[in-house]
UniProtKB/TrEMBL annotation:
InterPro entries: AMP-bd_C (IPR025110), AMP-bd_C_sf (IPR045851), AMP-dep_synth/lig_dom (IPR000873), ANL_N_sf (IPR042099), ATP-dep_AMP-bd_enzyme (IPR050237). GO terms for molecular function: acid-thiol ligase activity. Residues 110-172 are annotated as: Disordered. Residues 461-531 form the AMP-binding enzyme C-terminal domain. Residues 123-153 have a biased composition (Pro residues). This is AMP-dependent synthetase. Gene3D superfamilies: 3.30.300.30, N-terminal domain of ligase-like. It comes from the Bacteria. Residues 12-411 form the AMP-dependent synthetase/ligase domain.
């Protein structure tokens, strides 16, 4: 495979070309690239001896650790798939992931949610129960869960898993009992030490190697599968926009089960830099590590930055190595304000897990009309209508993409994969607009549509206009029955403390920004917008404010 380059291959090269460079720091653990390469080889051998075969899944239930990077690289070396799960989830949510992913191995840290799962999974079932039925070995045909159909040539996001490895799901009774459970810490270190140093067959870089669970937009979360090729392509884009160079040191203080931290971890790895791991965000510890390890970048946003400033108000730590975005005068005085396109644009752009992280970068389009910027050089973007045709610039449609950075589909979701890859494009589920200068504006999630006469109205677009009113703190839009137009737009508005506005003010403000047919004909003022997670609870809003008559309802 002359043209293949996996994460494992990158590590093998770093071990030879960067023998003195520190690859990972985690508390007292300091690993050079040769150290990391040797540990990954031993870990891969140990996992293989315990049933982790090509296409099998390895699950991490725990906080940030150098073990996350090691496990990902070991899975790349084996041709297996690594999944770091959100350890903050409830026991029931994690149990769903166990049943859905059917991992061959689980590496776990004890917690109030993971310990009961470990106890259940490692307790022998009663004799004769379904859970005692042996599972078919990975890669074989299962009578209860047949392998998915082969990917279609015109469906670029169909999952590229080997036959028999994508069955997953709860249909495999007792599947989680077959997993080998290894406790992080001493047990994990013994696992690594017990592995042998040997050669492994080369794995194609198009094979999935990372699974990240995404939002439950269909009532349950879905594991997005990313290949080495996609991850390295995304890292290449990030290296350019962030202007990362050898010697770059990244503090992995954000959760590694989210693509936002993982994408910088891997870009740092790809450039031959240093990843510094800390279990979770703690402002004092972040300050200490930036100072001690001369960190170049960390995973920081608004409130986190404010917490770091507060922790270092007496200048106890030297944070000048940190090259980051401007935020406040106190912050700017502590760090080095960076001049890369990424930092100048305040890390602006648009992305999601399924595109490897960022699909568009504002840093590639200074002065752009579209605040999401321009697409990655390794991806294409189209704004498509419901019929799959591209809509003209200035019109709202769904942001769709294809290219080198895209995922390989969702694990064990053949029907969803077919829908998401319709017309040969990945459908993000988000609305956007191509501006006259060619840049992209992100409108919001495509949650539902209002049909007023012959016009399609997307709540996210109207909500964005509402939120630009200076008196509006939050807003949501629903469709209400209308005897003439079938539906009309109703705005539910929460005003900022002390602010005042009339319904007429709200309507005229929206009319000044959007086409007249998109403006609300009804306005309701409330103390707060009900939420489901981070988005408005539209079902509750419909019930409280008379919503209905939606297309297809």
């Amino acid at each position: 495979m002359l043209h293949s380059l996996s994460l494992s291959d990158v590590l093998a090269e770093h071990a030879r070309s960067r023998p003195q460079v520190t690859a990972a720091v985690d508390g007292d653990v300091r690993l050079t690239y040769p150290d990391l390469d040797a540990r990954v080889t031993r870990l891969a051998d140990a996992l293989a001896a315990r049933g982790v075969t090509p296409g099998a899944r390895v699950l991490w239930l725990g906080q940030n650790s150098h073990a996350v990077l090691e496990l990902l690289l070991a899975c790349s070396r084996l041709g297996a798939v690594f999944c770091p799960a959100n350890w903050r989830q409830s026991e029931d949510e994690l149990r769903f992931i166990l049943d859905d992913l059917t991992p061959a191995a689980v590496i776990w840290q004890p917690s109030e949610t993971t310990t009961p799962l470990h106890t259940t999974a490692t307790t022998p079932p009663p004799p004769g129960s379904a859970a005692t039925t042996p599972l078919p070995p990975p890669g074989s045909d299962s009578p209860t869960a047949p392998p998915p159909p082969p990917p279609s040539s015109d469906s670029p996001t169909a999952p590229a898993l080997r036959a028999g490895t994508a069955s997953g799901g709860t249909a495999e009774a007792g599947a989680t009992r077959a997993a080998v459970w290894v406790r992080a810490g001493a047990e994990y270190e013994a696992l690594v030490a017990g592995g042998a140093v040997r050669d492994f067959p080369q794995v194609a870089d198009t094979e999935p190697t990372l699974a990240l669970y995404t939002a439950a937009f269909e009532g349950r979360p879905n594991a997005a599968l990313l290949s080495s090729a996609a991850l390295l392509a995304h890292s290449t884009s990030l290296l350019v926009v962030r202007q990362m160079e050898p010697g770059f040191t990244f503090l992995d203080n954000g959760p590694l089960f989210h693509v936002g931290t993982m994408m910088f971890c891997l870009a740092t790895f790809q450039i031959g830099g240093t990843n510094v791991f800390t279990p979770a965000f703690d402002a004092e510890e972040v300050c200490r590590l930036i100072d001690a390890e001369r960190v170049t970048q960390a995973f920081l946003f608004g409130q986190m930055i404010d917490a770091v400033v507060a922790a270092n108000r007496e200048s106890k730590y030297d944070l000048s190595s940190l090259r980051f975005v401007s935020h406040s005068q106190e912050w700017d005085d502590m760090i080095t304000v960076d001049d890369s396109p990424w930092c100048r644009s305040k890390m602006g752009g648009y992305g999601q897990t399924e595109v490897g992280g960022m699909l568009t970068f504002l840093g590639l389009a200074p002065g752009a009309a579209g605040f999401a910027g321009r697409p990655s050089p390794l991806a294409q973007v189209r704004i498509l209508g419901p019929d799959g045709a591209e809509v003209p610039p200035g019109e709202v449609g769904e942001i769709c993409a294809r290219g080198k950075t895209l995922f390989s589909g969702y694990f064990a979701r053949p029907d969803l994969n077919a829908v998401k890859s319709a017309y040969g494009w990945h459908h993000t589920g988000d609305l956007g607009r191509r501006e006259p200068d060619g840049t992209i504006t992100f409108i919001g999630p495509r949650l539902r549509m209002i049909k007023s006469g012959a016009e399609n109205i997307y709540p996210a677009e109207v909500e964005r206009a509402l939120k630009t009113h200076p008196a509006v703190a939050d807003a949501a839009v629903i469709g209400v029955p209308d005897p003439t137009w079938h539906q009309a737009v109703k705005a539910v508005v929460a005003l900022a403390p002390g602010a005042t506005a009339t319904a007429e003010d709200i309507v005229s403000h929206v009319a000044s920004q959007l086409a007249s047919y998109k403006k609300p004909t009804h306005v309701a003022f409330v103390a707060a917008i009900p939420k489901r997670g981070f988005t408005p609870d539209y079902d509750a809003l419909d019930t409280a404010h008379g919503g209905g008559n939606y297309p297809g309802a």
